[in-house]
Write a structure and sequence with these properties.
Blueprint: H1 4-21, E1 69-71, E2 79-82, H2 90-93, E3 98-101, E4 109-110, E5 116-123, E6 127-134, E7 148-150, E8 165-168, E9 182-183, E10 186-192, E11 195-201, H3 221-224, E12 234-239, E13 247-249, E14 255-257, E15 278-283, H4 286-289, E16 324-325, E17 331-332, E18 348-353, E19 356-361, E20 364-368, H5 370-382
Parallel strand pairs: 1-8, 3-4, 5-12
Antiparallel strand pairs: 2-3, 5-6, 6-11, 7-10, 8-9, 10-11, 12-15, 13-14, 16-17, 18-19, 19-20
């Protein structure tokens, strides 16, 4: 029988091999719309392959679309990641979430009329932040779900959703050209508790990534994306940059960095995060913004195949097993998380995640299919 150290070495080698074979989602580059592949992630190992598709057009648009390409252009025209099936928990469907957009035209699902009840867009020097309130049952999220984080990383660096791409025409470097789009490399989207926040960091601004840090997946919108979160208000404002995600100012005026507890350790309180100053706000009426939204129920089951031709703060909940915190309405992650802070201790553990086994080696979690894990076990037994 091989020793534990031998098993650890073999597990580590397999982890390294699998990670080396899959290109991280944040390292993939595609032009929109003509440079998109049908599917970004076709690897069938681990959590793959991708559930949806990335080429989305009039043939895929509708309430059964499985489009996993999201656009965030303006207060009128933006998408969020939400469930492909009704009454779901974000933690259960994070890998298969699809784009739900405020208006038609992107080959996606379209938010039913009345879904968005308040939206604030903050244009900061390093990012654009879309925040607000929504009726989350209209986009397939269970009414009692406090939600979770979607981002282009995850423990296996394949993203949540798997293969999900984000584009915008809204960055200043785009020069106001509405028909040209830049790929957003770093972003995070929290959904849950009838609140949403979706921050896209400008890759043309040095060090902008620190504003889209995704290692605080058990916190919530008020922590990673401080804003007004006023229900019933629709506005676009200029904004200062927030402090880098995780940095806060104490009562003594000194800045500190918050460290999220290990998985399974309850978060009972969070430091107060400063809301950046905003100005030059332009108000809007919701019926003028989203008058073309679908009026049907989003209850159709997912189908859709796509085609290969592209076209164009005062109220918070303590973080326990439901792990929710929010500025106005609770929002955080469910019991499945996109990323954790790597441990410096060399350990090997196994757990079950969505029917696949997860091996954590030196703090990096990698998901394996049953066949891959069986091969590892057979190799160890043969020693």
């Amino acid at each position: 029988m091989p020793s534990l150290s031998t098993l650890t070495i073999l597990a580590g080698a397999l982890v390294s091999s699998v990670l080396a074979d899959v290109t991280p989602l944040s390292d993939r580059r595609y032009t929109y719309p003509n440079g998109l592949p049908y599917k970004v992630d076709t690897d069938a190992t681990g959590r793959g392959p991708q559930a949806g598709y990335n080429i989305c057009n009039s043939t895929t648009e509708g309430q059964s679309s499985m489009c996993q390409t999201a656009l965030l252009n303006s207060i009128e025209d933006f998408c969020v990641w939400a469930s492909p099936t009704p009454n779901s928990s974000i933690g259960d469907v994070e890998a298969t979430t699809v784009a739900w957009c405020s208006i038609p035209g992107h080959g996606t699902r379209v938010m039913p009329a009345g879904t968005l009840t308040g939206v604030q867009v903050l244009k900061a020097p390093s990012y654009i932040l879309f925040t607000g309130h929504l009726k989350q049952t209209n986009v397939g999220i269970a009414a009692n779900d406090d939600g979770g984080e979607l981002d282009p990383h995850g423990a296996d660096e394949r993203g949540n959703p798997l293969g999900g791409l984000v584009y915008t025409s809204g960055f200043p470097s785009n020069g106001g050209r509405d028909n040209t789009f830049q790929q957003v490399i770093e972003w995070h989207n929290f959904m849950g508790g009838d609140v949403f926040c979706f921050k896209i960091c400008d890759p043309n601004v040095p060090n902008s990534k620190k504003y889209c840090n995704n290692i605080f997946d058990r916190t919530g919108c008020d922590f990673v994306a401080p804003a007004a979160y006023k229900d019933g208000v629709f506005e676009v404002c200029e904004s200062d940059n927030m402090d880098p995600v995780g940095v806060y100012t104490g009562s003594d005026g000194k800045t500190s960095t918050y460290h999220q507890p290990a998985e399974g350790v309850p978060i009972t309180s969070l430091p107060s995060i400063k809301t950046p100053a905003s100005s030059s706000c332009t108000p809007y009426q919701s019926n003028a913004l989203y008058g073309n939204s679908f009026t049907i129920s989003p209850s159709a089951p997912p189908s859709g195949t796509g085609t290969s031709t592209a076209s164009g703060t005062t109220s918070t909940k303590a973080t326990t097993t439901s792990q929710s915190t929010s500025t106005v309405t609770s929002l955080a992650t469910s019991t499945t998380h996109a990323a954790t802070t790597p441990s410096t201790t060399s350990t090997t553990t196994t757990s079950k995640t969505g029917g696949a086994s997860a091996i954590a080696f030196n703090g990096v979690a990698t998901i394996f299919s049953a066949s891959v894990l069986a091969g590892l076990v057979a190799a160890v037994i043969a020693l």
